[in-house]
Amino acid sequence: MKSTSSDNIPDKVATILVDVGCVIFRPRQPFKFDSGIISPVYVDNRLLISRPQERKSVIKYLTQEIKKIGNFDIIAGTATAGIPHAAWISDRLNLPMVYVRSAPKEHGRGTQVEGSVKRGDKVLIVEDMVSTAGSSLRVIDALRKLGTDVTDEIAIYTHGLSESYQNFKKSKVNFHYLTDLENVIKIAVKKSFLKSEHASVIKSWAKDPKNWAKKMGFA
Residue 94 class from Cβ within 10 Å (0-12 exposed, 13-18 middle, 19+ buried)? Predict the structure, then answer.
């Protein structure tokens, strides 16, 4: 897993996410993820779609990074949060786009990948944020079943959890991101959105997310 470091992009993107309100810290009233994990931090990058200037900056940074990674035939957005970002990126790069559902439809043709791909196409997956990367694995598998070549995924933000490292390694996919929890915490403390003592609590969650709630008395 790696982030871009040119022009201090990790801090710039972290600042955008904090200023827009995409990142919410609740160490005393944590959130519950779909995976069942209890977390003191929640990231909702869908808020970016309502902020034209900020989203343009993020899309610019994403396209800059994609050009460094390599050449692709298709941009694939993950449903639903990755779809708008994939659309803006594909438009900037003048590339075809598809989007991938978490599971095949239960009606119609039962498709999971919407749009057109062909065997051998090199596909880049675009996600808004990554926690454990479990959903990424489903998207990777769906695309590979159609014979496409999936070697890379890019996201705006990641929690940087060890489970995500393991999942991407298992799937043999290179994961790229603009910013992560460490940078967001740093900016949030600097801007007084987060107290230093709460920052250490959130960092402890990232080291052991599955057992954090029990240790903190929330489960």
Answer: exposed
E-state strands within the chain: 2-3, 23-25, 31-32, 38-39, 41-43, 74-78, 97-100, 113-114, 122-130, 149-158, 174-180
Specify whether the CB–CB gap between 167 and 137 falls below 8 A.
Answer: yes
C-alpha–C-alpha distance, residues 53 and 103, integer Å: 33
Taking the C-alpha atoms of residue 95 and residue 176, their distance in angstroms, rounded to an integer, is: 19
Among residues 128, 152, 174, 134, which one has the least CA distance to residue 1?
174
Could you say which residues of the chain have pLDDT below 50? 4-5
What's the rounded Cα separation, in Å, for the pair 214 and 199? Answer: 18
CB of 98 closer than 8 Å to CB of 127: no
d(CA 137, CA 207): 21
Q: What pLDDT, on the 0 to 100 scale, is given for residue 172?
A: 97
State the pLDDT at residue 4. Answer: 47
pLDDT at residue 1, rounded to an integer: 52
